[in-house]
Amino acid sequence: MTISKAVRIVEVGPRDGLQNIKEPVPTSVKLELIQRLRGTGLRTIELTSVVSPKAIPQLADCRDVLGNESIRRLQGQPGLRLPVLVPNIKGLDIAIEHGVKEVAVFISATEGFSKANINCTVQQGIERAKAVAEKAVESGIAVRGYVSCIFADPFDGPTEPSAVLHCVQKLLNMGCYEVSLGDTLGVGSPDKVRSLLHYLVDHDIPLDKMAGHFHDTYGQAVANVWEAYNCGVRVFDSSVGGLGGCPYAPGAKGNVATEDLLYMFQSAGIDTGVDLMKLVETGVWISRRLSKTNASRAGTALAIKQGLIPSKRSSRTATKKPISWTTIKDTTGLLAYSSGVNLKPILNRPKKGNARTSSPGSSKTPQTTPLSPDSSSRGEDGSSAQAWISARALHL
After folding, report:
1. For each successive 10 residues of the chain (396 residues), what is the average pLDDT?
2. Which candidate in 62, 167, 231, 246 is catalytic?
3. 355: Cβ contacts below 8 Å, ≥ 6 apart
4. Which pLDDT belongs to residue 354?
5. Which of 4, 83, 96, 146 gives the lowest tally of CB atoms within 10 Å of its CB?
C-alpha cells in the first residue's frame, strides 16, 4: 500500500489548549479562536469537552459554544471535522442535542492516571468509552479515540507497550475510526516513538488509523512527530501557540505548537493544507488575549520577521533610558564622569586636539560630551592622568 506524503493536523487548542488555564476565557474569545483557526484551512478542530464544570471549570461554557449559531453553521460544512470530547453517556446526549457530528472518547493506558483523571480503573474507563462509542455509532456519529500516558504515568512510572496495545485494540474494536496516541507527560523521545510504533505494527495495528499527540515538556515533541511521520503516521494533534497542559498530569507542559509542525512539514515539502502565516497571526492573537507567552518558536520567529510582534532587541532599544553622567574628578588635563559603576574619563587638551574638541585649537564640544570644557584643566601631561585612571579603576 502506498502511503500518502500529506498530513492532517488536528487542532486541539480550543479544548486541550485552554482547559488548563486558570483564569476564565470568555466564550466570545473561544468562538473567535475557532473561526480564526478554520480560516487558516484547518480541516479538524476539536471544539470543547462536555464535562462537569467542577472537573474542568474552563469548559463550563461547552453548551454555549456548541449552541452558538456560528458553530452550527460550521457543523454543516462538508469535509470539516469538529470533534467534541465526551466522558460519558450524559455528555454524549448533550453533544447530540447540539448537532455534534463527531465525538472523542478517552482512556488511560495506566491505572494511576486513570484514577486521577476520571476516577476509575483502566478497565472501567474502557467500559465507559465503549458505551459512549457504541451509542454514538448507532446515532450516526463518528468516534475518535485517545490513549493517554503511552510512555509514562505521573504516578506509576514507565508504561508497558502491551498496556498501550491493549487500549488501542479496545478502541478500534468499539468503533473508533482513529486512535490518538498521547504522550501526556511529554517524556517521549524519537527512539521511544519508533519502538512503540514498531511494536504496534508487529501486533497488527494499522498505522493509517493512528495519530500522534505529543506534549513538549522536554522539547522533544517536534522530533517525535517527525519520527512518527517517518514510521508511517499521517495525523497529528497540536495546539496553536503551544497552548495546553493537563490538570491531572503534574509537570506536563503544553502541546506541540501547530505553527512548529507546519513550518517543519512545509519546509520538507509535505502538504498540510493550512496557511502558515494565517496560523501565526492567530497564535499571536490568542497569546495576547490570554496574556501568555507564545510557546511556538517558529510562530514567534515568523511573527517578528513579519512585524507582528517586536523583537526583544528592538524592545530594549525603544525603552533604553539616556545615561546620566556626573562629574567626579577634574584634574589638570583630565575630566572624569560616573554613572553607577560606569566610569568615563575624557582627556582635555584642546590645543593639541582631543576627544573633547573637533580639531586642534577648536573649542567646539561634541554632542556626546556631558559638560563644557573647563579651561582651568590644562597643562599637566597625560601620564599622571593615566595613573589616576588606573588607581580609580581598582576601586570600582
Report:
1. 86 95 96 98 98 92 97 94 97 97 97 93 97 98 98 96 98 98 96 98 98 95 98 98 77 87 98 98 97 95 94 59 71 72 72 51 44 41 41 35
2. 246
3. 346, 347
4. 53
5. 4
Paired sense of beta strands 342-347 and 334-339, if any: antiparallel
Task: Give SS3 for 316.
Answer: helix
CA–CA dist 109, 122 (Å, integer): 7
Give the pLDDT confidence of 347-360 residue by residue, as tens digits: 766 665 555 444 44
* Contact yes or no for 211/178 (Cβ under 8 A): yes
- The C-alpha cell that represents 14 in the structure block: 480550543
CA 123 remoteness from chain centre: 33
At residue 353's C-alpha, the angle toward residues 351 and 358, to 5°, is 115
pLDDT of residue 313: 63
Q: Is 246 a catalytic residue?
A: yes
Q: For the chain, what percentages of helix, strand and coil (3-state, to nearest 5) are there?
A: 40, 15, 40
Question: Using CA atoms, how far apart are residues 378 and 356, in angstroms rounded to an integer?
Answer: 12
Type of residue numbered 357: T
Q: In whole angstroms, give the CA distance from residue 221 to residue 213.
A: 9
CA distances 344 to 120, 331, 368, 374, 381, Å, are 70, 14, 12, 16, 19
Facing residues of 346 across strands?
Answer: 335
Separation of alpha carbons 149 and 163, rounded Å: 10
Terminal Cα-to-Cα distance of the chain (whole angstroms): 74
Residue with cell 584634574: 331
Torsion of CA 386, 388, 389, 391, to 10 degrees: 130
Domains of the chain (ranges, CATH numbers): 8-306 (3.20.20.70)
3-state secondary structure of 67: helix
